[in-house]
Amino acid sequence: MTSAVIMLGPPGAGKGTQAVRLAAELGLPHISTGDLFRENLSNETDLGKLAKTYMEAGKLVPDEVVIDMLFGRVAADDCGGGYLLDGFPRTVAQAEALSERLSDGWTTRTLQLDVPDEALVERASGRLLCKDCGNIHHEKYKAPAVDGVCDACGGELYKRTDDNAETVMERLAVYHNETSPLIQYYGEREMLDVVDGSRTPDEVFEDLRGLLSPSGTSGQEVS
Ligand code: AMP
Asked: Residue 171 C-alpha to ligand 1 middle, in angstroms?
């Protein structure tokens, strides 16, 4: 059965870290709407210019813009056998658009990473990303062996401009107001599994992997 796997959680919960690993494990393309916007930003496309002000302010890019971009991406051949979404949907309107798009025979699985707010600002604001492979390090919790260099591929590490404490707090408020209603949305449809994201990345990964194994629970076929 073909699956759309959705990673849900506040900024700093570990979605990106887990999404990269899980996608590799499942052999599915990892589609991060934040990464797609950052690519557009660095290529200075019209879409990048439009998204920039929203991203820098920690606000959501308007639904119709994100939905168009995402649907363009998932129309590619590599997504025909399923995909893993990281950072989409972020509003109920986005979730509704996605469910309308998924045809019969597709299963939707939503994995929510639950982490208390107190831990999130420190986690997100210490984050270091690899320019080449997207691997995520942390200044305090997962410092690279060599300063500024990715442990996995030797690429250059950088800090996202929206990973400063003030913008992270705004992103957290946006999450609570606009994205957290998705917990109820997917919960009511029995498509949601919640994982305690405050443990080590390996422990969280094992839980996620178990849930997605053939005997894992939940998930519901889209009719
Ligand atoms: P992320 O890398 O997922 O934290 O996304 C970075 C930023 O990109 C967000 O703070 C938003 O400004 C924008 N963004 C990414 N995904 C979405 C989405 N599904 N809806 C609206 N804005 C998004």
From this structure: 9
Q: State the sign of the Cα–Cα–Cα–Cα dihedral 24, 29, 32, 35.
A: positive
How far apart CA 120 and CA 113 sit, in angstroms, is 12
pLDDT in tens, 65-82: 999 999 999 999 999 999
Domain architecture of the chain: domains with CATH: 2-116+168-222 (3.40.50.300), 127-162 (no CATH)
Distance CA 171, CA 177 (A): 10
Condensed to tens digits (0 to 9), the pLDDT of residues 148-191 reads 999 999 999 999 999 999 999 999 999 999 999 999 999 999 99
pLDDT at 202: 95
Residue among 64, 90, 180 whose CB has most ligand 1 atoms within 8 A, to mutate: 90
Ligand 1 pocket check for 175: Cβ under 6 Å: no
Mean residue pLDDT of the chain comes to 93
Helix (H) or strand (E) holding 141: none
